[in-house]
Amino acid sequence: MAQPLVKKDDDRDEEVEYSPFFGIEKGAVLQEARVFNDPQLDPQRCSQVITKLLYLLNQGEAFTKVEATEVFFSVTKLFQSKDLGLRRMVYVMIKELSPSADEVIMVTSSLMKDMTSKTDMYRANAIRVLCRITDGTLLTQIERYLKQAIVDKNPVVSSAALVSGIHLLQTNPEIVKRWSNEVQEAVQSRAALVQFHALALLHQIRQNDRLAVNKLVSSLTRGSVRSPLAQCLLIRYTSQVIRESANNTQTGDRPFYDFLEGCLRHKAEMVIFEAARAITELNGVTSRELTPAITVLQLFLSSSKPVLRFAAVRTLNKVAMTHPTAVTNCNIDMESLISDQNRSIATLAITTLLKTGNESSVDRLMKQITNFMSDIADEFKIVVVEAIRSLCLKFPLKHRSLMNFLSNILREEGGFEYKKAIVDSIVILIRDIPEAKETGLLHLCEFIEDCEFTYLSTQILHFLGIEGPKTSDPSKYIRYIYNRVHLENATVRAGAVSTLAKFGAMVDGLKPRIFVLLRRCLFDTDDEVRDRATLYLNTLGGDGAVVETGADVKEFLFGSLDIPLVNLENSLKNYEPSEKPFDINFVPKEVKTQPLAEKKAPGKKPTGLGAPPPGPPSTVDAYEKLLSSIPEFSNFGKLFKSSAPVELTEAETEYAVNVVKHIFDSHVVFQYNCTNTIPEQLLENVTVLVDGSEAEEFSEVASKPLRSLPYDSPGQTFVAFEKPEGVPAVGKFSNMLRFIVKEVDPSTGEAEDDGVEDEYQLEDLEVVAADYILKVGVSNFRNAWESMGADFERVDEYGLGPRDSLAEAVNAVIDLLGMQPCEGTEVVSPNSRSHTCLLSGVYIGNVKVLVRLQFGLDGPKDVAMKLAVRSEDETVSDAIHEIVASG
Amino acid sequence: MDSCPCIKNFLLLDSEGNRVAVKYYSDEWPTNSAKEAFEKALFSKTQKTNARTEAEIAMFENHIIVYKFVQDLHFFVVGAEGENELILVTVLQGFFDAVGLLLRGNVDKKEALENLDLILLCLDEIVDGGVILETDANAIAGKVASHSVDATAPLSEQTISQALATAREHLARSLLNCMYVPVPWLADDDAMGSSG
């Protein structure tokens, strides 16, 4: 046997391309497959041809429908052979071909015969093949055999049936659910993997029945589970039960924690790790609970197996985000991992250390990282840069060495994403650490001297324009900026011109020199650059004297655009050239929340033909157009805000109605979007009777009925109320839909002449304080907050009482105020005990409002909140507090 | 996370990143070109690492990859980001060792291609539609080699006569496989065989 092998090795030296499949070709193999039809089957040869076919499929060769069918039919012939090896290949081949329903019928009887065969291998494999290719109708025929197979004494057969059950549960749940008695029995099996498969299937069958899962877990955690895989499953199910029962137990020991801790002493590493990870992921885990898990993970850190080290360091990295002190014990082991061969492990170790490290270890750590940075890929470097940024924010005193590190790596080679991550980090540090500002800006200036990325250059120039003039010596940046005008492409040059102009506008002393530079830009080859230079020269006072620039000019040139760009784009598209100039004040400022509402709609209303939209395209300017086209409402003035649609009917009712509240300065218009979901009815003269007796400040002034509402085509009816001007009046309204209903002949679609008057009760509608606040975001909350000043600041504290979670309390307050969360502060990180949320908005009467909410947990569930409001008007600040106090 | 551990795919590639055998269970890679692109990227990311003594691990496009190399063969198992790494490596080790047993220690590309049927059956016995069937290498190899699941003796403890029988079968197979080697006297046989 040795000889031919040696011989072939020699061959390979001469011929590099050696492969038994060298030069294989689909057409030839398909020809060869004719041997399957021979009356005298040669099992060896047939096996080989199947191997070749599988090789072709494996290499990505596609068979046409005809080819696949042909191969499938000839393969079915091979069931005649009694050769075990060949039969195995036939099974694999059938699975690979995934035959169509009418082809499946061809092999069903053969497979069913194998399924009841005495040979275990036949039974196990036939079950897997048949379940893979079968559909629901056949399944009922073989169900009896499958149930038997689940409790078969041969573990391979039993596993085959259970795993097939796991797959079938996705397509035929009602059938598989009938097997739970057998599956239950299999859970008690002595064979390790049978237990694993049975447990997985049983849990999937019962996963929606919390009580049953609870029972399953409590019985198994007491008993003995043999297979490590099954034990891992049990740990997963247990943590699920813990998670779901968390709300019921107030204090005391966590149920099943002892089980998880016990698993840390299991003999299989996969179980130990699964348990350790489950403990670290418990909601609100205490440090006492964490300790044993951290201890085993620490042991894994010094394992010789990379996979174990990786798993441990990845888990500890996650723990470090919420419980950094719990991980500090592992720091020494972690430091030795910085030089790990596996770069994923090294990166995870470094970022963990950066999260857990204390102030004194920063310098040492930075030295180690510097060596490490040169030989890792960009994707890892980005992770490190982000970790360094958060470290610097944590220890602002260390900004010098960390900023130095960032500027050093900024000079080295790297791709765009990496460079962007560094620049972003420096920008954030400059913004948040005042002492770091000047050095940071100089680092950025040096970077743009030699920066190949236009995007980054323009971003940095823009940032320089904002921060540079506020520094002690603004003039030193001018050189860097003006160099760009000489050396860069048009985009960067235009950016540099704007930045120069900002210096000129903000620093009066520099103005004459800036003007000289700007005048030179008038001869640029690019028109955008020239245009900008001309604009700035003219608006900033063209004689270039040392004069103060007017505040309105500054605001015009450099003020922030508080209009969402999407809205501006839409308004510009809708603008028709005419005598009337485009007025930017008429662009809606509301941040669009519409996509969310639209996403919900299809889920709620699967009825009708292609699910009709609940109303007209409900963007802000579409509303505005719609309302201004109705003469009754034309004198109400400018639309302040339109709410998201509020459903007034349950889903799946005869008539679907939702309402949009349009707020004007001294009016409120309710727009009722109605849909008739009964094909046999035509509604006419549809109105909504609104009873405003619980809304004293409102009086009805007009209503606009809907003439006709045929099946499945939405229509609107409106009711308008007058209210005191500029006052955020609130109130509750009850609604009654009134209409004339006419029968429709579904075959002809024609309505009868006579109709009956009818009414339909709708749900109540409330106008709340949030309706008077526009969601308008600000890009930099801190700047906005400071420039607003503390003149009309109102601060007070509130107890919010017991809440499910901090996140729930935060969302409740955001919803109550109806303001725009800024800088992602609406997201509360899990397990945190305090949170700060920043909101901004515009109050009716066009008054800007900024809100800073500080939440803290006071006791186990009670949430306390400190509310600070700044606005341009003290009555508005008070009004916000009023909303919270009464809400 | 609350569900059963799941294998997304097995890859067995050669030292240039070409397929020897692959098996996908997840539909994240709908087309063959998507699969090939994934394999190529994965191969170039891992080829410089030393995964010959211990299985190595990497994060790649939101998957966890465990891998091990021997000779000119690269074994990969891919799982979800949140998967228990040690379960994945157990599957990889089962695959790796079972192939070693089936190829009788001669684990290289040539031997693997010559016994591709065994490799494919091996994959079929380890995972079914993403669900782990068996992780014990002896049990896997036993099921594949003996062509019968009720063979109780694991491959490593076969009696001499059994071993001889398997060896004889193996030899026959190797001889048959020689058909594809352009050796004159065998090529003649081949021509006769296919014409007959």
TrEMBL record, chain A:
<keyword id="KW-0968">Cytoplasmic vesicle</keyword>
<keyword id="KW-0963">Cytoplasm</keyword>
<dbReference type="InterPro" id="IPR009028">
    <property type="entry name" value="Coatomer/calthrin_app_sub_C"/>
</dbReference>
<comment type="similarity">
    <text>Belongs to the COPG family.</text>
</comment>
<dbReference type="InterPro" id="IPR013041">
    <property type="entry name" value="Clathrin_app_Ig-like_sf"/>
</dbReference>
<keyword id="KW-0333">Golgi apparatus</keyword>
<comment type="function">
    <text>The coatomer is a cytosolic protein complex that binds to dilysine motifs and reversibly associates with Golgi non-clathrin-coated vesicles, which further mediate biosynthetic protein transport from the ER, via the Golgi up to the trans Golgi network. Coatomer complex is required for budding from Golgi membranes, and is essential for the retrograde Golgi-to-ER transport of dilysine-tagged proteins.</text>
</comment>
<feature type="domain" description="Coatomer gamma subunit appendage Ig-like subdomain">
    <location>
        <begin position="622"/>
        <end position="767"/>
    </location>
</feature>
<protein>
    <recommendedName>
        <fullName>Coatomer subunit gamma</fullName>
    </recommendedName>
</protein>
<keyword id="KW-0472">Membrane</keyword>
<feature type="domain" description="Clathrin/coatomer adaptor adaptin-like N-terminal">
    <location>
        <begin position="27"/>
        <end position="540"/>
    </location>
</feature>
<feature type="domain" description="Coatomer subunit gamma C-terminal">
    <location>
        <begin position="770"/>
        <end position="884"/>
    </location>
</feature>
<dbReference type="InterPro" id="IPR012295">
    <property type="entry name" value="TBP_dom_sf"/>
</dbReference>
<keyword id="KW-0931">ER-Golgi transport</keyword>
<keyword id="KW-0677">Repeat</keyword>
<dbReference type="Pfam" id="PF16381">
    <property type="entry name" value="Coatomer_g_Cpla"/>
</dbReference>
<dbReference type="InterPro" id="IPR037067">
    <property type="entry name" value="Coatomer_gsu_app_sf"/>
</dbReference>
<dbReference type="Pfam" id="PF01602">
    <property type="entry name" value="Adaptin_N"/>
</dbReference>
<dbReference type="InterPro" id="IPR002553">
    <property type="entry name" value="Clathrin/coatomer_adapt-like_N"/>
</dbReference>
<keyword id="KW-0653">Protein transport</keyword>
<feature type="region of interest" description="Disordered">
    <location>
        <begin position="595"/>
        <end position="617"/>
    </location>
</feature>
<dbReference type="InterPro" id="IPR016024">
    <property type="entry name" value="ARM-type_fold"/>
</dbReference>
TrEMBL record, chain B:
<dbReference type="Pfam" id="PF01217">
    <property type="entry name" value="Clat_adaptor_s"/>
</dbReference>
<comment type="subunit">
    <text>Oligomeric complex that consists of at least the alpha, beta, beta', gamma, delta, epsilon and zeta subunits.</text>
</comment>
<keyword id="KW-0813">Transport</keyword>
<keyword id="KW-0931">ER-Golgi transport</keyword>
<comment type="similarity">
    <text>Belongs to the adaptor complexes small subunit family.</text>
</comment>
<dbReference type="InterPro" id="IPR039652">
    <property type="entry name" value="Coatomer_zeta"/>
</dbReference>
<keyword id="KW-0963">Cytoplasm</keyword>
<keyword id="KW-0653">Protein transport</keyword>
<keyword id="KW-0333">Golgi apparatus</keyword>
<keyword id="KW-0472">Membrane</keyword>
<comment type="function">
    <text>The zeta subunit may be involved in regulating the coat assembly and, hence, the rate of biosynthetic protein transport due to its association-dissociation properties with the coatomer complex.</text>
</comment>
<feature type="domain" description="AP complex mu/sigma subunit">
    <location>
        <begin position="7"/>
        <end position="146"/>
    </location>
</feature>
<protein>
    <recommendedName>
        <fullName>Coatomer subunit zeta</fullName>
    </recommendedName>
</protein>
<dbReference type="InterPro" id="IPR011012">
    <property type="entry name" value="Longin-like_dom_sf"/>
</dbReference>
<keyword id="KW-0968">Cytoplasmic vesicle</keyword>
<dbReference type="InterPro" id="IPR022775">
    <property type="entry name" value="AP_mu_sigma_su"/>
</dbReference>
